[in-house]
Every structure is written in C-alpha cells, then in structure tokens.
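Section 5.1 Outputs to date
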Amino acid sequence: MLNQGLLSFVTPSLSVSEINRQIKNLLEQDPILEDIWIRGEISNLSIPVSGHAYFTLKDAKSSLKCVIWRSNLTAAANAALKNGNDVEAHGKISVYERDGIYQLYADEIRIAGLGRLYEEFLRLKNQLEKEGLFEPARKKKIPEIPQTIGIITSRTGAALQDVLNTIRKRWPIAAILLSPAAVQGAEAPAALFNAFERLEKENPDVIIIGRGGGSIEDLWAFNDEFLVRRIAESHIPVISGIGHETDFTLVDFVADLRAPTPTGAAVSATPDIQEIRGYLDALSLQLNNYIRDKIQSHRRDLQIFSHRLELRAPLQQIQQEKQTVDSLQIRMTQQMAHFLQQERLRLTGMEQRLSAVNPESILKRGYALIEKEGQGLITSVTQLKRQDGIRILMADGSVDATIQ
C-alpha cells in the first residue's frame, strides 16, 4: 500500500517533442530574445534551392546557428551574406523542435557598423532639416529647355555613360560640361565639393550629380555636410540621381529635384526632342490650316469682286471665257487621247483573248479534232466503235483513220 501511495506522487515523463516545445515557449516569452541584434562572423553559409539561407554566427568563444527565410533576403542582406563577413543580424531566438537546437530566426542582416552610419545619417539629416535646407520653398525650378547641362560623377563609372546616352537621345543639342570626381572612398567628399565649385563657375543651366548603386558606405560621400551646404547655396538648379530608387542620401534631400537613378536624372533634366518635334509639327499643321483658311476666305472675296468687275467689263469677261474654252478644249483633247489609248488597250486584250480560244491556235499547240461522218466532232469515246471511219484534223491538214 505504501508503494502504491508513493507512485501516485511521481511526476509523469515528457516526450522529447514536449520538452523541446516547452523550451521553445520559454524562449519566445522572453521580450529580449524576441527582438534582438546579434553581431558575429558568418560561417557555414548554405543557400539551398528553397532560397532560405542557413549560416552560423560566431565570435572568438561561441557560435549560434541562424536562418533567414527567402522572403527576408533583401539586396542588403544578400550583399552581407558571405562567409567571413562581420555582420549584425536582427531577429528572435527560438527552438527548432525537430533537432532540439535553438537558433536565431533573422529578418534583417547588415554589415557591422552600418547601424552607426545610419544613426549619423539621421542626426545630420535632422540638423539640416531644422535649419531649413530641405524646405520645398528653397527648391529652384528646373529649366524646361536647358542649353548647357553640367554633370558631376565618376569619369569611369557606368552612370556617366547612362547619363550621356540619355541626354544625346532626348536632347542632343545641349552642350555637356563634365566635372569628374571620385564618388566613393575617403577622398570622395572633397572631390565632389571641388567638382561642384569648378562646374558652378561655368554657369550651366542645370547640374546633374550622381552615381550608380551601392551600399550605404559606398554612397556615404553624398552625405557630406560641406557638400550638402554648398549645393544649398548654389544659384544653379541641381538634380540628384544617386544609387537606386530605394537609396537616399542628404544630397537627394537638398537637391532641387531627386531622381531615382542617374538615367532618371538625365530624363528629368532634358525635354524629349521627339515630343517637341511632334508639338512643332502640330503647331505647323495648325498654322498651315489657318493660312489656308485665310487664303480661301480672301480668294472667295476676290472671286466676288472679280465677278462684279466682270459684270461691268463684258470684254474682259469674253476674254476670260475664251481662255476657259481653250482650257476645256485642251482638257477634252487630252481626255479623248487618253480614252482612245484605253480603248486600244482594251481591243488588244480582247484580240489576245480571242486568239487564245481560236481552234486553229489550239491545234497549233499540238491538239487535234476528230470528226465522224454524220456526227461531226467527237467529244466522247462512247461515240466510237470498232471499224468506224474518222477524220483527224490537225493544224496543217487532216488524215483519215479507222478505229481498231
């Protein structure tokens, strides 16, 4: 009896699945582990056909398994996901129940240090914004028909060719002034500042400043405070075309117009010559129609006045009628000649068609006619029988024959 009583107080055992689920629930109840940034070096990166990324974050003492689903693999995440990269990963800690391991379920990955850059970006943006440098009232109007376009970008970058090709296609009559500068690296902010000052002295109608896409570090030169303030002071309209549509720099905010790409900046800076040609063609057509209507109106007035004059000058009217008769006679002669020519052609065609159906013409092509006395031309074998006498007519004569 004692043993049975003791057994009633023994805790029942749990399955492996149950204990893993219990640990998972405990981890997911911790608010810190539900929203956490972890820094480490990527190793054992694997991206199978599913598109999800599996990797390990490690430091000098420990490692942590991680996974990021394909839906969270942004361009920035893909750029950061390389073995050996020092990264910061955001997500939550949970348990993979099947294997009983805990891991980071990441939803964002960035190169380590980018968070500090972004904080500096926001600090400087807020400061300049409070000073009013980004106010819409400060924005200068982009000229509709620029005569000269200034460009600030790398001499060797693809962005320059994209901008040049777009301008040449849309507005080839514009003069282009290139002020090249480094767009990336430690020397880039000063190079861009000096390039802007050089170009401003040439006084172009509009300035395009930009480069192709890149990481926040690659684009950092366009967040330089001195460059931003210099652009704000300029009397020349500035269009920015930096990176991709999702990239923003402080130059984008201070520019008079922000385009999503360098090519978009070139489009924003230029009218489309084809559209202008179409517009001019439409204006030309309207002008021609207006002039034609005016001429017709004046012609009608002149005809009225001429008619009144003719009523008062019979001799002049007779001369005009003679001229009309001469003109009609010439037209009648021409039309008669044309009519006769058409009739000749028609007769020639009929003659050719008659010749084609002439029996003699048919015989000359190797055909023959068969006659039977009393029946005329034979058109079917059923009209003949053995020993019938027939005559075969050919182009150059006839012969008699007997059916065998």
